[in-house]
Amino acid sequence: MRNHIATRLIDDFIFLEGPKWRDGSLWVSDVFDHKVYRVGLDGSREVVAHVPHRPSGLGFLPDGTPIVVSSKDFRLYRIADGQIIEYADLTAHATGHVNDFAVDAAGRIYVGNFGYDYDAGEPRKTTNIHRVDPDGSIGIAASDVDFPNGMVIINQGRTLVVAETWAGRLTAFDLSPDGVLSNRRLFADLGERQPDGICADAQGAIWTGCFNTGEFLRVLEGGDITDRVQFDGSGVSCVIGGADGHTLFMTVYCGPVPDLVAGKRKAAVFTLPVAVGVA
Fold it and tell me: pTM for the complete prediction?
């Protein structure tokens, strides 16, 4: 396993989720500051939109439309000209705050939720991954998932991988051309590590932030770990992008959880050159 040291790109955020690389910029949600930002490679930042109910997962439809999760009001919004416009209402479907998602080539969105009221201290429960179709219909894509978090589609669109945070594992599903998930299986058992946000590289390996250990890991199917970046804090989420498609962007909370609860602005983005680039 190779160990790496990352470079700080930008800081002074509260808690950064859902990083995505698009058109020369990094898009990222500051969950507790209720803003979506666009970050440049020079460390510049621009507020793209205000999302009052905790922005979380970010993604883009095939036509380039940006979509953001609004966690506490159970909705997906599209972002247009600095405004948020409702795209899907999951109130009747999700049993906990809506979280991260992935988008397939047909524009179907696979989105998870906490499954229970985490903030109120309810007992842990499994939940569903829902599929939001371009026509607005919503259905269950997978059930009995343990705190589905980051998701990514690999293998030329034929496999969806989800981080089940509390279970300490990455789980894979076959993804059919008509958007059906099947053949659920273990992609990697991470033991006591809690995977949060994930991304994939061109070889189908998964990079994951591990919230409880402060690590970012490159994990192969079967569980072998090839690369590791250690931080003093919490590893949150990641994406591969950059001018040459060979930069790993990592969002980190650089402090203890009590500081996060107190809203201290200790979140940052770090970068790392990687040998295997974007998928």
Answer: 0.97
